[in-house]
Structure formats: structure tokens, C-alpha cells
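re the bet — no i am not wrong, look at it urself. input seq straight from the record:
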Amino acid sequence: MSRLANCPDGFRIGGAAAGSATNSLVVNSDNVILDDIWAWRADHGNPGTVGWTINTADTGVVVNGDNVTAYGLFVEHYQKYEVIWNGNGGTDVFFQNEMPYDPPSQDAWREAPGVDGYAAFKVADNVTSFSGYGMGSYSFFNHIFNQDIDIFAANAFEVPSTLSPGSMHDLLTIFLSTSGTGGIQHVINGTGGSSTIANPDTPVTVVSYP
């Protein structure tokens, strides 16, 4: 039996009023369909409701169930992994992401020692089967938020390298600025070029992985 989670209006952490949440949506059931989910840690809003230490939120979507299918995930500005996928047999068709605009320093935004930033979409190391189609992650680090400090993410996507060949389809990153700093160093698992001020507003793609 499938279950449908439809939330076109989504989640907003901060912006209208001060607020925080560790995770916005956690899926623990198997055989779930997620349709048009928008999870947003606000990047703007009323005074005093937005800031790295004000509207804190780790992750937008966590999938623990098996055989979960998502159609249209929009997950933006969370402070750690935007999406964590722990279940087997999962599928995501379309993913749109903007990384957090406002890390105050690189040291404040690292998934592990020596690893810059957090991947936008993390498929857990123990997952044996997952398919992704049409997935993009964008960076917008600039002087308004970061005081011209270079902020980087090592990868936009991290998945087990043991997934079946071609499990990930049509991935991209974009540097959303013509005057910003930092950027995304690789598309997925150290594969794919970087998106930085050297190639602003230009998609950097990986058509198939692994």
C-alpha cells in the first residue's frame, strides 16, 4: 500500500517569525510517494527572524523508509545535508536546491574534518539501490552574507560508489552570481567540474554516475 505526502506549500523555517527545527520532514514508512515538497530555511524575512544562529535547521528531508519515490523535491538553505536518503529502493525525479547563503566561515560549515561544506543530497553509505533523475544544486556565496570569505562545498551530491552503473542521471551545479565567492568544487563524489566565479551562471553537468 502506498502513501502520498503532498505538501505544495511546504515548510519554512524562519522569515515570518523566529523559529528553528532540526529536520523539516522525516519519512519513516516504506512505499511512500512524495509529490511536490518544498522545504525552505528562509534566506530573507522580517528583521530578527533570519540568520545563521537564528533560524537554525539541519536538514529539510530525511528518508528512512524503503521504496520511497519523490517527484519534485525543492529543498533550500539548510545548514547541513539538505536531503539525507537512508532507505533502499528509492527514486527521486527532479531535485532543486540552493545551498545556504550564510555560513559565517568555512570552519562553521564542514561535514567532516578536511571536507568543505555539506553535500546537498546525501545517499547514505549503506544504501544499495537508489535512482536520481534531473537533480541540481546551486551556490550563492557573496559579500552580503559571507563578508567576501570563500565558502566551498566539496560536492553537491554524495552517493555510494557501489550503486548500479547509471543510477544517477543528469546532475548539475551552478554558481548563481557574477561577483560572488567560493562555490561547489565537484558535482558528485569528486566527479564533475567546479562551479565558481570562473564560470558563473553556467551549468556544470554529470550526465550519468557511477
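see?? Residues 143-146 form the longest helix (4 residues). told u. also DSSP finds one helix and 17 strands in the chain. so pay up
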